[in-house]
Amino acid sequence: MTDIDDTVHDILSKVLMVEPDEITDDLRRKDFEPWDSMAHLMIVSEIENQLEIFFEDEEVVDIWTVGDIKKILKQKIASQSSNEP
Amino acid sequence: MKEILESVRQDPSYLNLWSAYKKIQDLDLQVPEDDVNAVRLAVIGSTTLEPLAACLDVKTRLEGFHVETFVGGFNTYRQEVLDKGSDLYKIRPDVVVLSIDAWSILDKMFLANFVRMNVKERLAVQKELVENVLSVTSNLESNTSALILVNNFVIPVFTPFGIVDNKQKIGLKRFFEGANEILAKKLENNSRVFLVDLDAIAASFGKSRITNWNTWYRGSIPFGDDFTPILADEYIRYILAMKGRAKKCIVLDLDNTLWGGVIGEDGIEGIKLGNTAPGIEYVEFQRSLLSLYNRGIILAVCSKNNPDDAFKVFREHPSQVLKEEHFAAMRINWQNKAANMTELAQEINIGLDSMVFLDDNPIERAQVAQAHPEVLVVDMPKNPRLYREMIENLNVFDVLSLTSEDMARGEMYVGKRKRTELEQSTTSIEDFLRTLELKVRINEVTDFDTPRVVQLIGKTNQFNLTTRRYTDAEVRELRKSKDAAVYSMAVHDKFGDEGVVGVAIVRKNDGDWWIDSFLMSCRVIGRSVETAFLAKIVADARKANATRIIGEYIPTKKNPPASDLYERHGFGMPTTSGDNVTTWVLDLEEKTIDVPEWIELTEE
């Protein structure tokens, strides 16, 4: 697990009230009651603040699972480092 | 529950506060039966306020309260306030936070059109904005007995007029400043509705950073994650004041706290204390302390020193601001400070939990904190140039109303010291009381005295028979009721005027007068004025043809001084219920209570 995954799991466990080791990549928003729209907003903004990145509105809507979050983050961080001179 | 709160206490970040709030919502908590340690909160307004409510909820719990929180829907505050059956009213809130964003009331094109509006139009819009808020607060006032905290408007930083905004008759900033001023003016004499200076809190934090624009546009969350807990702290000040948790006394160390250096070593010329650097930081710190003293905060000294060295500074140093007359009590000796604190609390006659301890030495602080966890031991900055900022940001002395009794408390303690000296020089307690020339005024509470009476009900802990706390609204209801009477007692003696220091609430039930509340400021304990107070109630009860007076004693950690009141005054037939509440009866056909001969009852 990377540092980024750790950060994401920490945020998810606090907002969704689950133990960090109970979080799996296929944990689904639709099937998990505590992951309501307010929780989603919280997760997204905390990730933005802590990792200093920014989600597009489309990306926020397209996050359906924990795996989706990690996938988007990986893409973002890859493009960030390739942009560096 | 303890575990959840302990983890937030260690790191009260926004995320942790939110997480704790959600976890606590899932617990099935027992609602405590007494209201003393419970707070029902409602947070309503024009935006998404759940995060603010979450921070306020958890922070209130961190102060030791049981909390129930209602969060209003997005921009549904008008319906919630108008509909008497709404969930807002179902929780019977003790505190309502009303957070209305000006821009939610103003026309969508307001900013664009403002530039072209004439003065008359601007004033009309301003009036409408203010009236919108005031109509909500007045509805809340009539439908609840809650304390209502309403945010003022944040004066915007941007204005289309740019640097000439204040060259306009009413520029954009003056438009909002004016609105805030009208709100303040209209609420100035209101004892239930408090205008929270959101604009100043936002400015202190940095207005450009109060909103996270991502969460604002995604979810209409008005305040960002750094600012939300800070705003919650501001509301906590009102809650602590309402619950009578204000600190009353600052206990000060001397060396390296009131002045720089050590008087015993550096001498009066050597300590840092003066109107230029180095030393001005101590003078300014003392001036801040003096401002608190003038507002009614008690000052005391606790220092390891030779008393003569310390007194020399008080009496002879030209830059010393605080003098002996400002201190209600002093412990300048080589005893350990924890023991000195116990003595100071006894001498001043206040609880240790009303005391703040300021000392530059971390070891002394640790010792006092360990011996007396109820004392607020402030983590003093190492840098004395930050002392003043520390005391000015402490925010633990808040009360909901400042009475003339509060303001003069310092002088009253000088009187108290002189009284003690007299007591020590007279041989019998009766002689002592006789020489005091006590005058007592007891009457049903007037409008003028009501704020002071509410304050006494809220904060009196020691000489309080039942410790029932009533809000301003409840007291006003009781005053109106035919079946109840609210009495106040003012005390005066040759050393000074104590003002209103006693309250009694009587509920009348046919021939029985039931003393619901009986309390007296600790300042007047030992002057037998409680006897005069009971005598007046007895006399009134007889006039109303009552046959019995019933008194109750509900023990708390702090009120043993009041435990024998009824027994001392001839009440009999004590019965103790399961929860330790003792009920006493005075049969008026057999017994009576007279005003002591050394007390003169006066009329207004």
Explain briefly what this protein structure is.
The complex is a heterodimer of chains A (85) and B (604). By secondary structure, chain A is mostly helical. Chain A contains four helices and no strands.
Written description of the protein model:
The complex is a heterodimer of chains A (85) and B (604). In chain A, 62% of the residues lie in helices and 0% in strands. Chain A is built from 4 helices and no strands. Chain A starts with a helix and ends with a helix. By secondary structure, chain A is an all-alpha fold. Chain A has one domain: ACP-like (Non-ribosomal Peptide Synthetase Peptidyl Carrier Protein, Chain A). The model of chain A has no long low-confidence stretch (mean pLDDT 88). In chain A, helix 1 packs antiparallel against helix 2 (37-51). Chain B is α/β, with parallel strands linked by helices. Chain B folds into 3 domains: 2-242, SGNH hydrolase (Rossmann fold), CATH 3.40.50.1110; 249-392, HAD superfamily/HAD-like (Rossmann fold, 3-Layer(aba) Sandwich), CATH 3.40.50; 422-601, Gcn5-related N-acetyltransferase (GNAT) (Aminopeptidase, 3-Layer(aba) Sandwich). In chain B, 42% of the residues lie in helices and 19% in strands. Chain B is built from 25 helices and 19 strands. In chain B, strands 11, 12, 13, 14, 15, 16, 17, 18 and 19 form a 9-stranded mixed β-sheet that branches. Chain B has a 5-stranded parallel β-sheet with strand order 2-1-3-4-5, with helices on both faces. A 5-stranded parallel β-sheet of chain B has the order 8-7-6-9-10. In chain B, a hairpin with a 2-residue loop joins strand 14 and strand 15. Chain B is globular and about 80 Å long. The two termini of chain B are 52 Å apart. The mean pLDDT of chain B is 92. Classes of the chains: A mainly alpha (85), B alpha/beta (604). At the A-B interface, helix 1 and helix 2 of A face helix 2 and helix 11 of B.
